[in-house]
C-alpha cells in the first residue's frame, strides 16, 4: 500500500538557508540608505530577591524594536508552574517561547512525579536547552520560586550558564538595578521591605536605562501563594493635556454648501448561520 | 561568534552580548593524605562582574572535585555531564570511583569537542587506591597528573611564585597557606580574578570547605 507523505522530513536543528539571502538583502538595503528591520528585544530591567518567606521578582514593561518602543506595557514575568515564575530579558520571542516550552515540560514532569515542581528542575531544563542552542536563543532569565526546599533564585544566561544567588539582576538596566541591591540588600528581609527594594531597583533601571521604561511589575512568591502585581507601580503615567487643540465651530468661514442625499435600497438580504455545535 | 544583528546603537551595552566567562585563578596541590584546591570567585561578562561570589569548586563525587575556568556555560555543562557519568559508573562498580576515572571522563569530553568548547579544568580528589591526586585538563583536552597545578587567566602571574615556593611533602596547613597566598597574588594582578578565595581540603575523612573574605586575604607589600 503506497503511502503519500506530504511533509518533508525535518533534518533537525537550525536551518541556515536564509542567511545568504539575508546578507544580500542587507547589502542592498544599506546601499539605498535604509536599515534592515530589527528583532524586537525587551531592552529590560529584571531582577529578583530572596527574602524571609520567599522570593520577589520584578520587571519593567518596555519592549523595543531598535530605537522605537514597540510595546509600552508588555508582560515580562512568565508563568512556569504554580510555585515558579521567570522574568525574561533579551529577544522577546525567545524568552516567551522558551519559558512556555519549559512550563509545559515541567507540568508533564510534575504529573509524572506526583509532586510540586522544584526550582532547580526548571533551572536544569532551561540551562540544558539554552546550552544546546549555543547562545543562539537570546534569552537571559531570572528564575525564582518556592518549593519543598525553600525559596530559590537563579540567573540564567543565553549560553546556558546559571548562578544561584540571593539577589540577581539582568538586562540592559541590570547595572542600575544592581547598584540599588548592593546598597540596600540584607538577608531575611520582611515582605514590604523586599517589595520596596525590588521596586526601587527596577525604577533605577527605568529612569537610567534607555532600553527600559513604563511600569513596574512585581511577583511575590511564598509557600502556597503567589501575588502577581501587574502593575505594581505606574511610574510613567501619561500626562493629561492642559490645552485643547480643537477648533471652535465657525473658525473656518463657509462659502457654499451643497447636500446630495444618497438613497440606498435594500436589494437582497441573506443570513448564513455558522455551525457552532 | 555573535550575530551581527545585535550591534545597534548604545541601547544595549556590550556586556549584554558577551558570553559569560570565569576569568579565573584556580589551583590544586597534592599532599600526603589528600589534596587542597582553591579558586577565586569572579564571573565576568565583558567588563561587568556577573557574579562576585561564584563557587568554582564543583563536586563531581563525594571525594572528587573539579576547578572550572573558561566559559561558564561550557564548564557547567561538562561538569554536570561528568557528574552523571561518574555517579552511574560508581553505582555499577559499587565502590568509590578513582580520581583518574573522573579526569579521563573530563578529558574525553574536552578532547572530543575541543573545537566547540572553551574549558580549562583541574580535577582533584582522594581515592582509596592512590590517595590524593591532581590532574589537569587544559583547553585542547590534554590530561596529565601534576603534584601542583594552576589554571585560569590569573595563573600566568603566579607560575614564578608557585615554582619557587612549592616543596614536596608539605603538610595540609602549609598547602592551605601556599594556595591562599598564590591565589591572592593572582587576584591582585589579574582583572578577571577577584572576590573571595574559596578553599577545600579533600581527604579520606571527607571534604572541609572554607572561605577567605576580601579583608582577610594575606597582605603583601604594596608597591
UniProtKB/TrEMBL annotation, chain A:
<comment type="similarity">
    <text>Belongs to the peptidase T1B family.</text>
</comment>
<dbReference type="InterPro" id="IPR024689">
    <property type="entry name" value="Proteasome_bsu_C"/>
</dbReference>
<feature type="domain" description="Proteasome beta subunit C-terminal">
    <location>
        <begin position="235"/>
        <end position="271"/>
    </location>
</feature>
<comment type="function">
    <text>Component of the proteasome, a multicatalytic proteinase complex which is characterized by its ability to cleave peptides with Arg, Phe, Tyr, Leu, and Glu adjacent to the leaving group at neutral or slightly basic pH. The proteasome has an ATP-dependent proteolytic activity.</text>
</comment>
<keyword id="KW-0645">Protease</keyword>
<dbReference type="Pfam" id="PF00227">
    <property type="entry name" value="Proteasome"/>
</dbReference>
<dbReference type="Pfam" id="PF12465">
    <property type="entry name" value="Pr_beta_C"/>
</dbReference>
<dbReference type="GO" id="GO:0051603">
    <property type="term" value="P:proteolysis involved in protein catabolic process"/>
</dbReference>
<dbReference type="InterPro" id="IPR001353">
    <property type="entry name" value="Proteasome_sua/b"/>
</dbReference>
<protein>
    <recommendedName>
        <fullName>Proteasome subunit beta</fullName>
    </recommendedName>
</protein>
<dbReference type="GO" id="GO:0005737">
    <property type="term" value="C:cytoplasm"/>
</dbReference>
<keyword id="KW-0539">Nucleus</keyword>
<dbReference type="InterPro" id="IPR000243">
    <property type="entry name" value="Pept_T1A_subB"/>
</dbReference>
<dbReference type="InterPro" id="IPR029055">
    <property type="entry name" value="Ntn_hydrolases_N"/>
</dbReference>
<dbReference type="InterPro" id="IPR023333">
    <property type="entry name" value="Proteasome_suB-type"/>
</dbReference>
<dbReference type="GO" id="GO:0004298">
    <property type="term" value="F:threonine-type endopeptidase activity"/>
</dbReference>
<comment type="function">
    <text>The proteasome is a multicatalytic proteinase complex which is characterized by its ability to cleave peptides with Arg, Phe, Tyr, Leu, and Glu adjacent to the leaving group at neutral or slightly basic pH. The proteasome has an ATP-dependent proteolytic activity. This subunit is involved in antigen processing to generate class I binding peptides.</text>
</comment>
<keyword id="KW-0647">Proteasome</keyword>
<dbReference type="InterPro" id="IPR016050">
    <property type="entry name" value="Proteasome_bsu_CS"/>
</dbReference>
<dbReference type="GO" id="GO:0005634">
    <property type="term" value="C:nucleus"/>
</dbReference>
<keyword id="KW-0888">Threonine protease</keyword>
<dbReference type="GO" id="GO:0005839">
    <property type="term" value="C:proteasome core complex"/>
</dbReference>
From TrEMBL, chain B:
<dbReference type="GO" id="GO:0002376">
    <property type="term" value="P:immune system process"/>
</dbReference>
<dbReference type="GO" id="GO:0005634">
    <property type="term" value="C:nucleus"/>
</dbReference>
<keyword id="KW-0378">Hydrolase</keyword>
<dbReference type="GO" id="GO:0051603">
    <property type="term" value="P:proteolysis involved in protein catabolic process"/>
</dbReference>
<dbReference type="InterPro" id="IPR000243">
    <property type="entry name" value="Pept_T1A_subB"/>
</dbReference>
<comment type="function">
    <text>Component of the proteasome, a multicatalytic proteinase complex which is characterized by its ability to cleave peptides with Arg, Phe, Tyr, Leu, and Glu adjacent to the leaving group at neutral or slightly basic pH. The proteasome has an ATP-dependent proteolytic activity.</text>
</comment>
<protein>
    <recommendedName>
        <fullName>Proteasome subunit beta</fullName>
    </recommendedName>
</protein>
<comment type="similarity">
    <text>Belongs to the peptidase T1B family.</text>
</comment>
<feature type="active site" description="Nucleophile">
    <location>
        <position position="24"/>
    </location>
</feature>
<keyword id="KW-0963">Cytoplasm</keyword>
<comment type="subunit">
    <text>The 26S proteasome consists of a 20S proteasome core and two 19S regulatory subunits. The 20S proteasome core is composed of 28 subunits that are arranged in four stacked rings, resulting in a barrel-shaped structure. The two end rings are each formed by seven alpha subunits, and the two central rings are each formed by seven beta subunits. The catalytic chamber with the active sites is on the inside of the barrel. Component of the immunoproteasome, where it displaces the equivalent housekeeping subunit PSMB6.</text>
</comment>
<keyword id="KW-0865">Zymogen</keyword>
<dbReference type="Pfam" id="PF00227">
    <property type="entry name" value="Proteasome"/>
</dbReference>
<dbReference type="InterPro" id="IPR001353">
    <property type="entry name" value="Proteasome_sua/b"/>
</dbReference>
<dbReference type="InterPro" id="IPR016050">
    <property type="entry name" value="Proteasome_bsu_CS"/>
</dbReference>
<keyword id="KW-0647">Proteasome</keyword>
<keyword id="KW-0888">Threonine protease</keyword>
<dbReference type="InterPro" id="IPR029055">
    <property type="entry name" value="Ntn_hydrolases_N"/>
</dbReference>
<dbReference type="GO" id="GO:0004298">
    <property type="term" value="F:threonine-type endopeptidase activity"/>
</dbReference>
<dbReference type="InterPro" id="IPR023333">
    <property type="entry name" value="Proteasome_suB-type"/>
</dbReference>
<keyword id="KW-0645">Protease</keyword>
<dbReference type="GO" id="GO:0005839">
    <property type="term" value="C:proteasome core complex"/>
</dbReference>
